[in-house]
Design a protein that fits this description.
CATH superfamily of the largest domain: Winged helix-like DNA-binding domain superfamily/Winged helix DNA-binding domain
CATH class of the largest domain: Mainly Alpha
Structural class: alpha+beta
Strand order of the largest sheet: 4-3-2-1-8
Shape: globular
Number of domains: 2
Number of strands: 10
Distance between the termini: 51 Å
């Protein structure tokens, strides 16, 4: 599998959004630092959520043609877990002697921002002209708003179950 074909797509899982065009990972809209090999591993996981990905498959995609010690992959996974705050190892499961499984529910948002800026408005104060935002920014804001609405809906549904 050529993971470069995954670039340009946007992904959402848990509180994270990955912009495959800019290769920017965000948690709750805040950008996170992610090393290139960890970013490639995350892309591979996002493309195959909940599937077992063997160590050999990971190495072939991220480090094609290179002979590596097992510690290189282990450190890459460890750095990705640290970036994601996955101390409890609930997002990335280690399948001992076999590989890894990415357990988050993943949503592929598709290719975002292909057509440049949209004439969307940002709140402004005073008499300033409205600012333009890109299609990508707007779609990410809408995705965040939809997630918040879905969480609120779930919360309200749970609340009403306890009241009844």
């Amino acid at each position: 599998m050529n993971h470069s074909s995954l670039r340009g797509q946007c992904w959402r899982f848990d509180a994270f959004t990955l912009d495959g065009t800019s290769m920017e990972l965000r948690r709750d809209r805040q950008p996170l630092d992610c090393e290139p090999s960890s970013m490639s591993l995350l892309l591979l996981f996002l493309h195959h959520p909940q599937a077992l990905i063997t160590k050999d498959e990971i190495e072939a995609v991220i480090w094609p043609g290179r002979i590596l010690s097992e510690s290189v992959l282990t450190k890459c996974v460890s750095r990705l877990r640290k970036t994601l705050g996955d101390d409890a190892q609930t997002l990335i499961l280690t399948m001992h002697r076999r590989g890894y499984r990415f357990m988050a529910t993943v949503e592929n948002l598709g290719v975002i921002g292909q057509n440049g800026p949209l004439p969307a408005l940002r709140p402004v104060s005073g008499n300033s002209p409205p600012a333009r935002i890109t299609r990508q920014e707007l779609e990410l804001q809408l995705a965040d708003a939809l997630s918040a609405i879905q969480a609120l809906h779930s919360s309200l549904r749970l609340s009403s179950e306890f009241v009844s």
